[in-house]
Amino acid sequence: MNMEKTPDVSSRIYWQMFITFVRIGAFTIGGGYAMIPLIQREVVQVRKWMSPKEFIDMLALAQSAPGVIAINTAIFIGYKLKGVRGSIVTALGCALPSFVIILLIAMVFTNFKDNPVVERIFKGIRPAVVALIAAPLYNMAKAAGVTWKTIFIPLIAALLIWGLNISPVWVVVAAIAGGIIVGILRTRNLKKTE
C-alpha cells in the first residue's frame, strides 16, 4: 500500500497565485497601468484563469473601484479564483515587491537622488513605461468589442479627459448612461420587429 502524501491541489493554486503576482509586482516599472499587459499575459494567455472578455470586464470594474488599479485587479482575479482567501493572496503577492523595493529605495535614495547617473536612469525608464502602458491597447480594444464603427467612443472619451480636462468620473458616468440608453433603444427595436 502506497502511503505517500499527494500534494494538496488547493494549496498549490494559492502558491501559484502568490508567485504569479509577486513576479508581476517585482518586474513591472511604471505602476499599475504598466502591470496590466503582464497581468493579462499571465492570467489570460499563460495560466488561462480567465477569458479575454472576462479580463476586460474585470479591468473595467478594477478601474472604476477606488484604489490602485494593480491591487484592485489582483483582488478581482484572486476572488474569482478562490474567493476572499484568493483575493488576499493575490493582493499580498502584488503589493509585497513594491513595498520592499520602495522601502529599500527610501532608505538609500536620499544619498543618491542628486547623482547624475541615477537621473539618467530615470530619464531612460520613462519612455519605456509609456510603451508598456500603450502596448496592450490593441488587444484590450479588440476584446472589448471596439470596431471601426465604435472607435469614436474611446477617442471622444480620451479627448474629453485630455483636451477639455473633464474628470474621468464624469466620462465613466456618461458611458454608463449611454450604455443604458443604447440597451433600452435596442430592446424597444427588437420588440417592434417581433
Which terms summarize this structure?
mainly alpha; globular; 79% helix; single chain; 194 residues; 8 helices
Kindly summarize this structure in a few lines.
It contains 8 helices and no strands.
CA-atom Rg in angstroms? 21 Å
Overall morphology: globular
- In the predicted model, the low-confidence regions spanning at least 5 consecutive residues are 1-7
How would you state the average pLDDT, rounded?
A: 83
Strand content: under 5%
Distance between the termini: 67 Å
Instruction: Please give the largest β-sheet.
Output: none
Helix count, per DSSP? 8
Secondary-structure-derived class: mainly alpha
Could you state the order of secondary-structure elements as H and E? Answer: HHHHHHHH
Helix content range: over 70%
- According to DSSP, the number of beta strands is 0
